[in-house]
Amino acid sequence: MHESPPGYQLLSAYGGKIGMLTVRKATLGNLDAITEIYNDAVLKTVATFDTEPKSLEEQKVWFANHSSKYQILVAEQDGLVVGWASLSRWSDRCAYSDTAEISLYVREGHRGKGIGKRLIREIVQEGKRAGLHTVIARITEGNDVSIHLHESVGFKHIGTMREVGRKFGKLLDVYLMQLIYD
């Protein structure tokens, strides 16, 4: 049996050719790695429409806005945070309290190895355990891997927002996907 360090709740672990992958609830101590992974996506991809890297202070506010209902998970491999996923409040309007938005990022060099699949499965289960009714995903056009990943856990296409973001000099569509828990 795998023992978790004190204060960590282990959600799942498995061993493979590339080492042990552990998915667990994020701690404030993981914020540097989470921010590093996110800022890499900000600078190099259209996965986020942020165009400027986030500071650690900004990320501390983001982290503090999560709770037992709106979780942040990290995937660790050989002591390195290689990805993270979160469920964030969809809106501050009370009627949306059982709706969350999903985010998922995997460190460059670790993509295509099943880490995103493990994270999305775990974060979706966390949402169900927390009593959420639905989870929304916004995925930028051209991100077929993310679309397939979301479909693999039951997300359905619900619409497209046309040309709503501009990044790297191009207007981009955003696909909306939704998972409704039974």
Order of helices and strands: EEHHEEEHEHEE
Radius of gyration (CA) equals 16 Å
Q: Which strand order do you get reading across the main beta sheet? A: 1-2-3-4-5-6-8-7
**Structural domain count:** 1
What overall geometry do the principal axes of the alpha carbons give?
Answer: globular
The second-level CATH architecture is 3-Layer(aba) Sandwich
Largest sheet at a glance? 8 strands, mixed
Structural class: alpha+beta
Strand content: 35-45%
**Record field, number of beta strands:** 8
What does this structure look like?
The protein is α+β, with helices and mostly antiparallel strands and 182 residues long. The chain has helices at residues 31-44, 56-64, 115-129, 144-151, and strands at residues 10-14, 21-25, 72-77, 80-89, 99-106, 134-140, 156-167, 170-180. The chain has a single domain (10-180), classed as Gcn5-related N-acetyltransferase (GNAT) (Aminopeptidase), CATH 3.40.630.30. 25% of the residues lie in helices and 35% in strands. It is globular. Residues 1-10 have low confidence and may be disordered.
Provide a quick synopsis of the model.
The chain is α+β, with helices and mostly antiparallel strands and 182 residues long. It has four helices and eight strands; from the N terminus they run ββααβββαβαββ. An eight-stranded mixed beta sheet has the order 1-2-3-4-5-6-8-7, sandwiched between helices.
Layout of helices and strands, plus pairs?
Blueprint: E1 10-14, E2 21-25, H1 31-44, H2 56-64, E3 72-77, E4 80-89, E5 99-106, H3 115-129, E6 134-140, H4 144-151, E7 156-167, E8 170-180
